[in-house]
Design a protein that fits this description.
This protein is an all-alpha fold. The protein has two domains: 45 residues; 153 residues, Serine Threonine Protein Phosphatase 5, Tetratricopeptide repeat (Alpha Horseshoe), CATH 1.25.40. The chain contains ten helices and no strands. It is globular. The C terminus is likely disordered.
Amino acid sequence: MSKRIGPIAAACIRGADMNARRRRLHVLGVAITAVLIGAASTYGESHSGAAPSPWVAPLQRVETALASQNVSAAEEAWHEAHRAALGSRQRWDGLIEVGEASLRIGEVANRRQAAQATARRLYLAALFRARQQGALDGVLRTAEAFAALGDREAVTQCLHVARHVAERTRDPQARARIEAFRAPWGGESIQTATFTWDPLLLHFPDESVGP
């Protein structure tokens, strides 16, 4: 035999049910908001470039090791950065950064000539990638890297590539940027100089780059 519930008790039960539903909706709303915030954060990192490039951390370890004159630790970290830069096949900037790190290791280890050869191969690979992508920034950044080595012939080639990239992209500001970079090197000599590197390296840059 069921018990009859009075009006006050019934009202209390209805109120408790409503409160329980409100709490469930609140919890659900908080969960949905958290998911949306997490998704927005992930989207922002992947599309704004906020996530660090894979070679950044090992290059930081290179600098830390060099500060304490630990060449073997610097070389170990450099090889990790080198693999990461080669593996990021759509990026030219990592190749340049790793090449510059090679020069710093060469200075500390007193192996400048070998370090410069490695840097040149990495810069050439960066030039190839930038040319393939039509990235004028990459071509000119590579030219700067070669200029720091005092390699006039390589700077010449970079500027030839830059002109072709500018013609392809039809960027109205591109020619002015190239001319501004070219001027300190002597305009006419840069235009008429020839380039004598092995052209096969332009077809297989990554396989030609090593420590």
